[in-house]
Amino acid sequence: MKLPKIKITIVKKTLNKDLIDEFLVEEYKGMKACDKFEIGQEFVINHNLASVPEGFCEWAWADIRDDINLIASGGNILAMKEKGVAITGCSDWFRPVYFKVERLDEFI
User: Fold this and answer.
1) 18, 20, 48, 54: which is deepest, by most CB within 10 A?
2) Rounded Cα–Cα distance for residues 92 and 68 (Å)
3) Burial 11-45 (b: 16+ CB within 10 A, else e)
4) CB 87: neighbour CB atoms within 10 A?
């Protein structure tokens, strides 16, 4: 079975300063939004979903890999306007990043 290429786009980065201030020790209070990604940055991946793409955060990859697998295998997310698209995010809830995962028409 051939799997489609998948495009991952960074759609939003946030900083939950209130949570940082309440729950983190003093040395982390100056945290900034994630510096690993930029909004609009894109990654196109092929069927090798076991390997973290070059330049991609390993933590975020582990968090969103199930959604990538679902989209790559032909699945869809309930309630999404567009088929073959998922909005997902990493679990760094102090400074989360949100990703758009989309199945491309190209197949490898």
Assistant:
1) 20
2) 18
3) eebeebeeeeeeeeeeeeeeeebbebbeeeeebeb
4) 14
Residue indicated by tokens 């989209």:
71
* Cα 26 from Cα 14, distance rounded (Å): 20
Q: At residue 78, what is the residue type?
A: L
Radius of gyration of the chain measured on its C-alpha atoms: 15
Pair 23, 35: CB distance under 8 Å: no
Taking the C-alpha atoms of residue 7 and residue 5, their distance in angstroms, rounded to an integer, is: 7
55-102: per-residue pLDDT in tens?
999 999 999 999 999 999 899 999 999 999 999 999 999 999 999 999
Beta strand pairing call for 97-107 and 85-89? antiparallel
